[in-house]
Design brief:
The protein has 9 helices and 5 strands. It has 197 residues and is mainly alpha-helical. A hairpin with a 4-residue loop joins strand 3 and strand 4. Pfam families: Peptidase_M78.
Length: 197
């Protein structure tokens, strides 16, 4: 996969970005662990905050789960993904990931569309393996997506209570935040590494 290199973002910067979004969108998400209403986030908060709109599509190209179109300021997501938001953790993470691109990369995407012809392959000019992780837009969107769905404050509390990471805690997080076990495990381990190692 080839992507454009983005401005550097640290884990702490992305955690702060998630906190800012959650405080603006619904402070209650920071008071007790609960699932983020990702549908409301992209249908209402995103247009009000960034001027971007959700564009549900019946189908996308094979292998494409969603994308951001800086030319039309739209977040394009398959209808089936949106219909699964209440029950499918992977769908919830996909939408959170794409929202994270809008929040963090919308200006850079717009600049690159002006720098290069809109059909230019040069816009996506580097292999991800050639980009340091903190300048990789996919890593940033994955990290921020996880931070939005599973706020750091709650994950820290859960890690304290559980006395560290475990498969049981990951399962509990997946249930509480309505995310996949994989997403919960990645988030649990990332917060553990940042705060306890």
């Amino acid at each position: 996969m080839k992507v454009f290199q983005v401005d550097p973002r640290s884990k702490a910067t992305l955690e702060a970005s998630a906190l800012e979004t959650l405080e603006e969108f619904n402070r209650g998400l920071l008071k007790r662990p609960q699932p983020l209403d990702i549908e409301k986030l992209v249908e209402f908060y995103m247009p009000q905050s960034f001027g971007w709109h959700l564009d549900p599509q019946e189908t996308l190209h094979p292998g494409v789960e969603g994308y951001c179109d800086p030319k039309t300021k739209t977040l394009v997501i398959p209808e089936i993904t949106l219909e699964s938001l209440s029950s499918d953790g992977r769908s919830r993470f996909t939408v959170a990931h794409e929202f994270a691109h809008v929040k963090e990369h919308r200006e850079q995407m717009k600049e690159r569309m002006l720098e290069y012809d809109e059909n230019s392959e040069r816009l996506y000019r580097r292999s991800r393996s050639e980009i340091v992780v903190y300048r990789d837009p996919e890593w940033q969107a994955n990290f921020l997506g996880g931070a939005l769905l599973m706020p750091e404050v709650h994950v820290i509390e859960m890690l304290h209570a559980a006395r560290g990471p475990s498969s049981r805690l990951a399962q509990r997080m997946a249930m509480i935040f309505n995310v996949s076990l994989q997403a919960a495990t990645v988030r649990m381990n990332a917060v553990w590494k940042s705060h306890f190692e």
